[in-house]
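User: What would this chain look like folded?
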Amino acid sequence: MDALASSSRRVRTGLFEIDFGSGEVHKEGRKVPMQEQPFRVLAILLERPGEVVTREQLQARLWLADTYVGFDEGLNTAIRKLRVAFGDSAENPRFIETVSRRGYRFVAPVREAVAGTPQPSDSVAATDAAELKRGRPWRIRRPALALSAAALFVTLAGVAYLARWHSSANPDAQKRVMLAILPFQNLSNDPEQEYFSDGLTEETITDLGQLTPEQLGVIARTSAMAYKHTNKTISQIGHELGVDYILEGSVRRDGEKVRIAAQLIRVQDQTHLWAQSYDRKLPDFLDVQNELAQVISQQVGLRLTPGQKSGLETTRKVDPEAYDLYLKGLYYWNMLTPTGFSQAINYFQEATKRDPKYALAYAGLADC
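Assistant: Here's the prediction, encoded as structure tokens.
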């Protein structure tokens, strides 16, 4: 972490207090969950509150030149997480304003904070000023204010201690697990089947990302696909993406027969927690994604509700040819080119003709 985050500086803005030393944000004494990269973006914005910090400046400070993670998506994700943490919005910003085609600006008032000392409220400050104007001696109010501040500090310290004790004693206080799903390798000896392995990757990312977002965070497709055919180690990838676990796998397809191999690896010690191979025919292929979600949720210790468990046990019925057309549409859509969009539209339309109730195909058309 750079010098700005290792500083002992603390600032306050609105109901929030930002501690640069610990890399933490608190709201009214309660810690606000925040990952390292969003905090580093916040720290840079708070170096120059009220001024525009360009995307180029943020990239130079936080994204190394040789990183494979997409800068645009990484920065957009960091800003989005900051807005969630502050209860802010891009449309009506109270803290972080987007400056079109340039960068971002922290627009809320910022003041320095003294560690361990509660700040007097605006109403108290206004009362003090009024009393001074009326000639009331400051020495009359200062001891009372000091005693009040001391009592408030003791109370807050007690509350903070109880909160920390409750969190450590409460088994439900679980940190959010981060997972990266690397691109599935195409072992079909047919380059034209690349769409199938890429489609499986994207569908798995989507399914797991929607499973229980408050407990499991899944790295976005764009960042994960940057590691396709990479020679980087699990340790390097895990460090760059900031994840706890990595799922990697392969796909081999022969007509309607599909063989999928997958393994879950813990980044900390690069231990293989689980590995499995699946042999399916295309109509039953979607069951594999449900099984993957069930296994991963068990291995990383997610606590699923009965409804979530039931959803994983539900078999999805999709016309196999429509699904195949849908995956081809995804493949061309992700090229993000006019030609790719045109081809994607054709495949999505064919999928809806094959299965008029196939919602994902209609969603693909809407995206195009």
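The chain has four domains: 3-112, 122-169, 177-317, 318-368. If you want, I can go into more detail on any region.
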